[in-house]
Prior knowledge:
Layout: H1 20-25, E1 39-40, E2 46-48, E3 52-53, E4 61-62, E5 65-66, H2 67-91, E6 100-103, E7 109-110, E8 116-117, H3 123-126, E9 130-133, H4 152-159, H5 174-178
Amino acid sequence: SPFFLMVHFWETHTPYLPDKEDQAAFTRKPGDTSGLKVLKAPAGYAYVPGWGPLDEMVERLVDGRYSIDLYDACIATLDRHVGRLLEELERTGKAKDTLVILTSPSGAGLGQHGCWGSQGLFEQTVRVPLILRGPDIPAGEVVRGDSSHNDIVPTVLSAAGIDMGAGFDGANLLPRIVGEAGAPTAIF
């Protein structure tokens, strides 16, 4: 029968408590940037995409481990848990007609701009993923453009065939994703 399930994972919130197997995979030495994608900005400074200027990387110790490593390990743990949920949808045959939306309430600062956690209106805290998987949604495609958490409820209601009426600040994202004729509209 139809169902709605919301799961809120806490892995990427403090205290950072990744699974042991993931914790062992992230063990950088202080100042080691070899595992990071470091680019040069037009202004001349080195930066890590999604992080910010390389010289703003703060390697704070948390219980004897570097916060960046713990956070990365928590993301790996979260990824595995989401994978288990998707596998269960496949196993039960529900994946083919289930809309799955993956997002985050906020990003997390790990010392950039002197902020820890969800402080400030910086890219690392306000730019979050919004990933949709479901019927008629092309796999692996990226739709460019702004969206908001306000768009989630109208999108879910539309996918469920429920007239959303007036009163929502957000917009149904499905037409932007699959187009009116079922073809992707803005894919890069």
